[in-house]
Design goal:
Distance between the termini: 15 Å
Structural class: mainly alpha
């Protein structure tokens, strides 16, 4: 399973937020430990890895692609 965090792409919710509520967008970026939102390509890279032979022994895990935004949340 791949769980994306805040992902920015043209026409997406964060693109709209950036234009219509720039303060909210800036706050979301500032809250992320990496100082930016993710890209669709970064999520796709995780999916491609999990579908590749390199991940043949990976089972039952969740790959969180969120720039460390959930590092403080313990599951």
């Amino acid at each position: 399973m791949v769980s994306p965090g805040a992902i920015y792409f043209e026409g997406g919710v964060w693109d709209v937020r950036k234009r219509e509520a720039p303060e909210d967008y800036a706050a979301a970026v500032a809250r992320n430990p990496m100082g930016r939102l993710g890209t669709p390509e970064e999520v796709a890279n995780a999916v491609v890895f999990l579908a590749s032979p390199a991940a043949s022994f990976i089972s039952g895990t969740n790959i969180v692609v969120d720039g460390a935004a959930t590092t403080r949340i313990q599951y």
